Amino acid sequence: LPNILCLFKIKNLKDCLHRLLDENKEHNIPEILYFFVKKENQGFGIGKKLLEATHRHLANKGFSQCFVTTENKKNNHAISFYKKNGYKKISFNSRSLFVKYKKTLK
Hints:
Strand order of the largest sheet: 1-2-3-5-4
Largest sheet: 5 strands, mixed
């Protein structure tokens, strides 16, 4: 997946998934920490495929849920992306810079 920018170069998807996830052992729910596709490569389904692969990876490891936190601003396209991919808002504070979403994995 050469079109994915993850703040580092990736050699394979498995390596990317391990680096992008914080498997929160305390609550046993992983959280996606960094998830983005370069602007010029958006709109081709790359993000959707990577997110689906992430969900499969987590489900195969026995996780039933996943968190993601993103910026709380009106023009944040990530919010609609996560909603389209089954994430539900779980925490919100109008004064907060961030909002958290959760997805139940199948």
